[in-house]
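User: Hi! I have a protein structure encoded as tokens and I'd like to know what sequence might fold into it. I'm fairly new to this, so please keep things simple.
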């Protein structure tokens, strides 16, 4: 998704903006630009990487202590210099950076053309820039923030914007609806960004804008109101980002660092929740709402991508132990299919970023229908965390790699604690089983550390399959969602077509794919499905398929039967996803690396899909 940066204060804006844009690169983009207010309004923008923009601008800009910057993830108009942001209004009075989609831009553009406006780009953002100028020109009484407000009142869609005005060179106007914006409070300076990462090194005091907020930021003032002109009080939050989290350290990529962090991040997810004596699980964010959850007639778990895979594991574990019916939905389907939702439903929305447009739309629909809505989210202060009735932070720390890894295992950890706590409260689990599971859960981080020692072996396996065109991932039970997640990891960073399938479904179609060119990755620990999945492996081998199996350590039978195997420590089947996913993440990472792919910023993808 697009990234926005802004600075107003005493320092030179350019270096701060460029550094901030480099922090936002992980969101995915294809072009970048910067606008600086000094004696005049200077705009520099180009297709390509932020470092190219930096080299292009550093020798020709004229400084200035007010500026805005943008990384663009193309929606309207192909990646190009002219479509990059910032966009000027026709007469150069305004320049704007925008994250989001203006759905009625075509109609607005037609109207503006009739009023004599011309356009140089194909973007919806340039339409907004001209619309602001249109209102600004209506009367001398209308200042820049009023023109922004009037223009936004005509807009249908999502926006996070920062606007500079060439005729009012002492302010930045920002506004949001559907695309996040956070303002960092400094001493005589303010920082604006799409998320907190670029701000963290400058200040820990931030204000998260809410939908329909409009702010006027000057060097010595920050006033907030909404599109209806009602003043909004500043709610100042403290950032808890450690600068160290924003650095790769000794790792070649953020994704590798985040894979290796998982034992620690799962421990962070436990912290304060999984008591040492395993007596009870405390989910502080749900304390007041838990009685309602206990009586739920149904739980609906909603997410996208990897978060949807975590939701599937949640369904299995909640139904097995807490015995409440669970349904899992893709947010992008749920929001439009006219689902039946009642006030007796509990809806859990899972999102690492807390800003995924489809997931937020599903949240709003569930709330409208009166359901209790709970968030499982990784970004403190994100929209999801602020708009749900209650929630649980995953505490995985900032996840920079576009391919989600530690956030996934943190989500599954929260869902596991949630299910066990619910089962204990509903007395659908014996005290012995509860104690056994909680004790085993506490051992997962140590078992994860053992799995990470397979790195060299997994690298060697990756070497064998890096040129595959297709791949098939199979699993049963709790490991079916893990097969889906493994396939997603491979396809999104190596661009190899990969499908995850319930192993029992193989004979209903996918087995036709099997030949000696097809790597089949089978998640096959010694659980209740073991004999069945061994049969599936034999069916693949009989058709010359190449099988890579994730097996329980010491499993000599499968080790002899398959082409390659990676061992994981034994665990209760319900906890196996937290272990089995790690080698799949590592396999995808090494294959992508061997294929020369950009592991942290795979093509076409964004870290947080804040538009539909
Ligand atoms: C996962 O590796 C992908 N990057 C993607 O599927 C992601 O899980 C999805 O976009 C949902 O993001 P969220 O968890 O931030 O809502």
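Assistant: Happy to help. Inverse folding works backwards from shape to sequence: for each of the 612 positions I chose a residue that suits the local structure. Here it is:
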């Amino acid at each position: 998704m697009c990234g926005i940066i802004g600075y107003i204060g005493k320092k030179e804006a350019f270096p701060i903006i460029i550094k901030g844009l480099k922090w936002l690169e992980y969101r995915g983009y294809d072009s970048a630009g910067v606008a600086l207010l000094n004696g005049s309004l200077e705009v520099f923008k180009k297709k390509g990487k932020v470092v190219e923009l930096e080299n292009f601008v550093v020798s020709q800009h004229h400084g200035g202590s007010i500026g805005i910057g943008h990384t663009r993830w193309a929606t309207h108009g192909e990646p190009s210099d002219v479509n990059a942001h910032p966009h000027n209004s026709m007469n150069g009075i305004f320049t704007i950076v925008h994250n989001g989609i203006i759905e009625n831009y075509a109609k607005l553009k037609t109207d503006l053309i009739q009023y004599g406006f011309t356009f140089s780009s194909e973007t919806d953002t340039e339409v907004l820039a001209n619309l602001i100028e249109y209102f600004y020109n209506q009367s001398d009484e209308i200042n820049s923030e009023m023109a922004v407000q009037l223009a936004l009142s005509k807009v249908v869609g999502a926006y996070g914007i920062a606007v500079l005005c060439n005729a009012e060179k002492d302010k930045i106007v920002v506004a949001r609806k559907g695309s996040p914006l956070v303002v960092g409070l400094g001493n005589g300076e303010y920082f604006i960004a799409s998320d907190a990462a670029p701000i963290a090194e400058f200040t820990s005091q931030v204000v998260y804008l809410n939908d329909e907020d409009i702010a006027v930021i000057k060097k010595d003032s920050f006033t907030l109101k909404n599109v209806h002109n009602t003043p909004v009080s500043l709610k100042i939050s403290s950032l808890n980002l450690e600068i160290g989290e924003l650095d790769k350290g000794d790792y070649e990529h953020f994704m590798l660092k985040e894979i290796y962090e998982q034992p620690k991040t799962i421990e962070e997810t436990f912290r304060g929740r999984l008591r040492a004596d395993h007596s009870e699980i405390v989910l502080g964010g749900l304390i007041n709402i838990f009685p309602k959850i206990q009586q739920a007639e149904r739980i609906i778990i909603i997410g996208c991508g990897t978060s949807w895979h975590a939701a599937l594991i949640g369904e299995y574990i909640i139904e097995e132990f807490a015995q409440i019916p669970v349904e899992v939905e893709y947010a992008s389907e749920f929001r439009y299919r006219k689902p039946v939702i009642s006030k007796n439903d509990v809806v859990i929305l899972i999102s690492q970023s807390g800003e995924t447009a489809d997931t937020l739309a599903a949240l709003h629909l569930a709330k409208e229908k009166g359901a209790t809505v709970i968030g499982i989210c990784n970004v403190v202060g994100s929209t999801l965390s602020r708009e749900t009735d209650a929630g649980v932070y995953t505490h995985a720390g900032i996840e920079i790699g576009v391919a989600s890894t530690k956030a996934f295992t943190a989500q599954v950890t929260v869902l596991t604690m949630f299910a066990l706590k619910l089962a204990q409260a509903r007395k659908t689990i014996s005290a012995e089983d509860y104690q056994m599971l909680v004790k085993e859960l506490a051992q997962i981080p140590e078992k994860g550390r053992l799995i990470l020692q397979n790195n060299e072996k997994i690298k060697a396996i990756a070497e064998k399959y890096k040129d595959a065109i297709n791949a098939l991932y199979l699993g049963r039970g709790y490991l079916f969602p893990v097969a889906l997640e493994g396939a997603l990891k491979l396809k999104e960073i190596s661009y190899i077509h990969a499908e995850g399938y319930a192993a029992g479904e193989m004979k209903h179609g996918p087995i036709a794919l099997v030949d000696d060119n097809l790597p089949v990755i089978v998640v096959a620990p010694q659980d209740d499905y073991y004999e069945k999945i061994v049969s599936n492996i034999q069916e693949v081998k009989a058709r010359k398929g190449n099988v890579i199996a994730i097996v329980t350590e010491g499993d000599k039978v499968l080790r002899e039967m398959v082409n390659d195997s990676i061992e994981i420590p034994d665990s209760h089947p319900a906890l196996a996803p937290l272990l089995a996913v790690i080698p799949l993440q590592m396999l995808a990472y090494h294959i992508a690396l061997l294929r020369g792919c950009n592991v942290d910023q795979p093509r076409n993808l964004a870290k947080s899909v804040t538009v539909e």
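A useful reference point when you look it over: The longest strand covers residues 168-177. Feel free to ask if any position seems puzzling.
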